[in-house]
Amino acid sequence: MHPNKHIRQALEEAIAAGWTFEKSSPRAHAYGILRCGFRGRGGCQMSIYGTPRSAEIHARKIRKRIDRCSH
Fold first, then answer.
1. In angstroms, rounded to a whole number, what is the distance separating the alpha carbons of residues 30 and 41?
2. Which of 5, 24, 31, 46 is the most exposed place for a label (fewest CB within 10 A)?
3. Helix (H, G, I), strand (E, B) or coil at 22
4. Mean confidence (pLDDT) of the chain
5. How confident is the model at residue 7 (pLDDT cuts 50, 70, 90)?
6. The pLDDT of residue 18 is above 80
7. Contact in structure between 33 and 48 (CB atoms under 8 Å)
8. CA distance 10 to 13
9. Residues 6+ apart with CB under 8 A from 60
10. What pLDDT score does 9 carry?
11. Taking the domains of the chain in order of start, what are their residue ranges?
């Protein structure tokens, strides 16, 4: 999982809520992509960054995205 404990914990909460995490290749800009359980065209997704400016704020945004998902 993610090297930062705040983001790792938020990702674990997302996976427990039914989201999936796909880690990007080592050369990609984002660390990975988080997707909700809805597999249609309008499904929710969020890029997860490896070195965000503030890990706590990025983790908070992950939790907000999970809570706001209507699927």
1. 21
2. 5
3. strand
4. 93
5. very high
6. yes
7. yes
8. 5
9. 10
10. 97
11. 5-68
pLDDT bin (cut points 50, 70, 90) of residue 41 is: confident
Using DSSP, state whether 69 is helix, strand or coil: coil
CB–CB of 1/16 below 8 Å?
no
Other Cβ atoms closer than 10 A to 69: 18
The total number of residues shown for the chain amounts to 71
pLDDT (0 to 100) of residue 1? 76
> What span, in angstroms and rounded, lies between the C-alpha atoms of 38 and 40?
6
Return the number of other C-beta atoms located less than 10 Å from residue 16's C-beta: 9
User: What separation in angstroms does the CA of 27 have from each of 49, 56, 70?
Assistant: 13, 24, 32
Going edge to edge, which strands form the sheet with 32-35? 20-23, 32-35, 45-48
